[in-house]
Amino acid sequence: MATKHEQILNYIEKLSVGSKISVRQVARDLGVSEGTAYRAIKDAENLGYVSTIERVGTVRIEKKDKENIERLTFAEVVNIVEGHVLGGREGLYKTLNKFVIGAMKLEAMMKYIESGSLLIVGNRYEAHKLALENGAAVLITGGFDTSEEVKLLADELELPILSTSYDTFTVASIINRAIYDRLIKKEIMMVEDIIYEQKEVNYLYDYQTIGDWQLLLEKTKHSRFPVVDHQMKLVGVVTSKDVIGKETTISIDKVMTRNPISVLPKTSIASAAHLMVWEGIELLPVVDSYRRLLGVISRQDVLKALQYIQNQPQIGETIDDLILKQFEEYKIDDSVIIKGTVTPQMTNQFGSLSIGPLTSLIKEAAHRVLRKYKKGDLVPENIMIYFIKPIQIENEIEVKAKVIEVSRKFGKIEVEVWHNNKIVGKALMTSQVIER
């Protein structure tokens, strides 16, 4: 039977897009405490079913697929620009396709406005009205209001008209940054991208026997399976090592490994790979927030996903990308050197190279030299910086990496940081190798 928390989530999921939700209403309708209702609504917000807006409340929104994650709802725009809603609350769930800066004459402005767009403009009432009539929402900058006529029109057309205290340039920058961040997130492959493609998940119930395990082994040619209870909640994992030499009538719960390591669908593939290497496991169950089994991923699944990621064009730049853009690579004998200048963005409050960018440079140099020996995917296991001097802004540095030990699944690299022909930093890094 579903828990009260699950019942509330199911209730919210079935609400029509645009519906308003309150803790008190949910508690009254479902006969639960307000504390339980509040926790479930927050969980629904994390799952992307609702959005909470100051002075408006919580609104059921359309859950976006990963393909259009770069699109924002107007409800999300309100939160991003720290604004408030003047009218058209019923349209907050709708999706923003593009935004238009209203820094031109009305006739020229209307050429760019279309249904689903957002006009960012100051206190120009006529522009507010024309935008709404053309199917666009409006965001008024500078903290200005609009006329009652425009507010009524926004309510009638169910198109939000919003206001923020920020100026037009700042608002455009904030929204553009939010879309850019989502583009980067879109590139990051999650565990859910693998498991939702699985047509069938093979598992055993805890009351089944070793004989049932053998039948599943013959059917699938696999030997590792998650174990669930009658509510589909993960309780264990069983492998050939657990059952070898035991009677076929013994129940699975007597031999399985209890409380196995598992991940959520929103775990990144890179994190899952690191966990599998670190813990030495070949099968990783995927569960929801109630530990109900959703699927499994294997080392082979992770490797295919990592190779797919490496073959995809990159849309957005991460912090590591911005750092490495300033550096060039050189190969000398059995070493790799990356050389560049310390930029202002790489420094701390004292104007010295910050430990974060330094660690990124060390990791990148180490992995580049290790790839001369190993062709698999590399997962950092340990970085020890045991010597570092302050490296000032705009100083040119060289990061030299050399492999000192390598095996089939392991690499140890020594990294030195040089400035003006003097060593200013030294580190030792170990990485696990996931062979393809």
Automatic annotation (TrEMBL):
<dbReference type="InterPro" id="IPR046342">
    <property type="entry name" value="CBS_dom_sf"/>
</dbReference>
<dbReference type="InterPro" id="IPR029069">
    <property type="entry name" value="HotDog_dom_sf"/>
</dbReference>
<dbReference type="InterPro" id="IPR036388">
    <property type="entry name" value="WH-like_DNA-bd_sf"/>
</dbReference>
<dbReference type="Pfam" id="PF00571">
    <property type="entry name" value="CBS"/>
</dbReference>
<dbReference type="Pfam" id="PF03061">
    <property type="entry name" value="4HBT"/>
</dbReference>
<dbReference type="InterPro" id="IPR010766">
    <property type="entry name" value="DRTGG"/>
</dbReference>
<dbReference type="InterPro" id="IPR028979">
    <property type="entry name" value="Ser_kin/Pase_Hpr-like_N_sf"/>
</dbReference>
<dbReference type="Pfam" id="PF07085">
    <property type="entry name" value="DRTGG"/>
</dbReference>
<protein>
    <recommendedName>
        <fullName>CBS domain-containing protein</fullName>
    </recommendedName>
</protein>
<dbReference type="Pfam" id="PF13412">
    <property type="entry name" value="HTH_24"/>
</dbReference>
<feature type="domain" description="CBS">
    <location>
        <begin position="256"/>
        <end position="314"/>
    </location>
</feature>
<dbReference type="InterPro" id="IPR006683">
    <property type="entry name" value="Thioestr_dom"/>
</dbReference>
<feature type="domain" description="CBS">
    <location>
        <begin position="197"/>
        <end position="254"/>
    </location>
</feature>
<dbReference type="InterPro" id="IPR000644">
    <property type="entry name" value="CBS_dom"/>
</dbReference>
<dbReference type="InterPro" id="IPR036390">
    <property type="entry name" value="WH_DNA-bd_sf"/>
</dbReference>
<dbReference type="InterPro" id="IPR051257">
    <property type="entry name" value="Diverse_CBS-Domain"/>
</dbReference>
<keyword id="KW-0129">CBS domain</keyword>
